[in-house]
């Protein structure tokens, strides 16, 4: 009998612990991102980034970011996060950029003013949701390697080998 009382107590605690979990109204959820994800694009490879200039924090930037596609010639989402010495946001800038703007990501200390500025780039649709806060998150993340071959490039030696194997197989049947 005592065991069942303990089991009921544990189950009751588990139920109430789920109720006590709260989400801050200023947090974006996966559901919010799904609503932002496009179903059609204006051009092949079109994508969106959160975009803002000197917003007070990440929520303000993401909340009021215009829902538009990045222009052709851009491939990445850029984020610049300026923090005070306590790690609190001073300003957030996000935009669509080309490769050249993403070659110097990381964090820089401004010891005179007591600020730290972290920049990050990412490749993908609305990938710049989180803010870079340290060297671990201030990175350049891509979906494919930067030295990838163009889509029209063909691996001729491999094609030649496959053709030889096919011809050899059909001539010996």
From TrEMBL:
Keywords in alphabetical order: Cell membrane, Disulfide bond, Glycoprotein, GPI-anchor, Lipoprotein, Membrane, Signal, Transmembrane, Transmembrane helix
Subcellular location: Cell membrane
Stretch forming the signal peptide: 1-25
Principal subcellular localisation of the protein: membrane
Keyword Transmembrane on entry: yes
GO molecular function term, any single one: acetylcholine receptor inhibitor activity
GO biological process, any: positive regulation of canonical Wnt signaling pathway
GO cellular component, as recorded: plasma membrane; side of membrane
CDD domains given in the database record: TFP_LU_ECD_LYPD6 (cd23625)
Pfam families: UPAR_LY6_2 (PF16975)
Topology in the lipid bilayer: Lipid-anchor; GPI-anchor
Transmembrane segment boundaries: 154-171
PANTHER family in UniProt: LY6/PLAUR DOMAIN-CONTAINING PROTEIN 6, LY6_PLAUR DOMAIN-CONTAINING PROTEIN 6
Name this polypeptide is given: Ly6/PLAUR domain-containing protein 6-like
Lineage: Eukaryota, Metazoa, Chordata, Craniata, Vertebrata
């Amino acid at each position: 009998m005592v065991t069942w009382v303990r089991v009921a107590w544990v189950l009751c605690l588990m139920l109430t612990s789920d109720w006590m979990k709260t989400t801050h109204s200023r947090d974006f959820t996966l559901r919010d991102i799904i609503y932002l994800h496009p179903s059609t694009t204006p051009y092949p490879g079109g994508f969106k980034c959160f975009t803002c200039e000197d917003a007070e924090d990440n929520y303000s930037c993401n909340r009021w970011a215009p829902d538009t596609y990045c222009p052709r010639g851009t491939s990445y989402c850029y984020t610049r996060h300026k923090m005070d010495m306590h790690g609190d946001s001073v300003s957030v800038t996000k935009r669509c950029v080309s490769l050249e703007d993403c070659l110097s990501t990381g964090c820089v200390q401004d010891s005179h003013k007591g600020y730290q500025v972290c920049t990050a780039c990412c490749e993908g649709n609305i990938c710049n949701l989180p803010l870079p806060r340290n060297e671990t998150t201030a990175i350049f993340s891509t979906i494919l390697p930067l030295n990838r071959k163009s889509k029209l490039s063909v691996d001729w030696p491999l094609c030649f080998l496959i053709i030889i194997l096919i011809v050899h197989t059909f001539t010996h049947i």
